[in-house]
Amino acid sequence: MKALNRARRQVLIGIGLISLAGSAVPFGEAVAAETFKVGLIADYSGAFATWGPQFQNAIEAYQAVYGKSVTGPKGEAIDVEFLYRDSASAGADKAKQLAEELILRDKVRMIAGFDLSPHALAVAALATEAKVPLVVMNAAASAITRASPYIVRTSATLPQAASVAGKWAAQKGYKKAFIVTADYAPGNDAAEYFAKEFKAGGGEIIGATKTPIQETNFSVYMERMLQAKPDLIYMFQPNGSPSIAFVKAYIERGLKQAGIQLMGGAEFAELYLPNFPDEIAGALSVNNYTEGNAFPENKLMRDQLTKMFGAKGITDIAAVGAWDGMQLIYLALKEVGANGTAAQYIDAMKGKELKSPRGPIMIDPEERDIVQNIYIRRIDKVDGKLVNVDIATVPMVKDPWKIDNPKK
């Protein structure tokens, strides 16, 4: 009996020691890092397949420079893990399906990416219902950040660039413009705000047309513009197959030879310039980022992308939007920690001023949208290579749509 009691005491002592070991961290040992999951939704295949790899490359480059772990407000380590999902150029329903899976099955705490505006808008209600922040790294329709209180944008809005384009073109003496834009929310914004500022400056819109979002045959549109004889064509097409096809048709159908100036936006990113003949030199674009700028953060990003991905590390607005999205996510985690609410993370992002590869930026604390420089660029051939060259800068532009449509 004494032996049995002694055995029981030893078992109880053992259980107690195990319990103590599970409830206390021995001196000198590190606390295990918490994992914070972020889902990324973008197109890796189909017509818009360039977006996903660029987002992912920039995120991996950022983490290579700044680490995959963040130190939280109490000194705790937070590992930031990304789960990448391909929306396959299949539209808004696919993006929403992926978001639901990321939230319900994968238990992500944030979702990022969104190359196209319909994708971001489709997920907005889900973000509100599930209380999951969305960090929009490209989609540019103005209304996106109004669609949910849990959306922050690090890219641009189309009215930011389009309003600057219209005003600048009128100031430079262009009198007659023809507008061709893809028929979805950003294209509609671009057409409206270019026309508004161009007409305010004394210009005339002599034609305007909308094209299907995945259109790649622009011959009929080019013929219409050739007959209309504008001074300038203002275009907006989604980056990828549609934008490349439009620019090639402009050259091949003789519009440049006819003396009609072409002005666009992100369609002329450095990534796409090798697709065009040298005749595209002289085309104008208005954008929030010029690849060869001298900002220190731009050199850091470009050098790291080249180091890790070689020729595939070419930067454009996708890389910049993702890089700055990472800045915001890391700042929010440092301030709030791994177990904050969606509202706390969004509040931590509001009003932040960042040194971006594109130049200075700020997240508007009222609208959760980006305030940034807008650059007017011209394509030149330098050392045998087509490049974008800044010819004017308009500093710290807010989204004009939100100014025109104040919150009620």
Topology:
Layout: H1 2-23, E1 34-42, H2 51-66, E2 69-71, E3 77-86, H3 92-104, E4 110-113, H4 117-130, E5 134-136, E6 151-153, H5 158-171, E7 176-182, H6 185-200, E8 204-211, H7 219-228, E9 232-236, H8 241-252, E10 261-264, E11 284-287, H9 296-309, H10 317-336, H11 342-349, E12 353-356, E13 359-363, E14 370-382, E15 385-397, H12 400-404
Can you walk me through this structure?
The protein has 408 residues and is of the alpha/beta class. It is 40% helix and 23% strand. The chain folds into 2 domains: 34-156 and 293-368, Rossmann fold (3-Layer(aba) Sandwich); 159-287 and 375-404, Rossmann fold (3-Layer(aba) Sandwich), CATH 3.40.50.2300. It contains 12 helices and 15 strands.
Q: Which key features would you list for this structure?
A:
single chain, 408 residues, alpha/beta, Rossmann fold, 15 strands, 40% helix, disordered N terminus
Note the main sheet: 9 strands, mixed
CATH topology name of the largest domain = Rossmann fold
CATH homologous superfamily descriptor of the largest domain = Response regulator
**Helicity, in percent?**
40-55%
Structural class call reads alpha/beta
- Percent of sequence in beta strands: 15-25%
Topology order in helix (H) and strand (E) letters: HEHEEHEHEEHEHEHEHEEHHHEEEEH
Give the end-to-end Cα distance, rounded to a whole number of Å. Answer: 81 Å
| CATH C-level of the largest domain | Alpha Beta
Question: What oligomeric state do these chains adopt?
Answer: single chain
Low-confidence stretches: 1-30
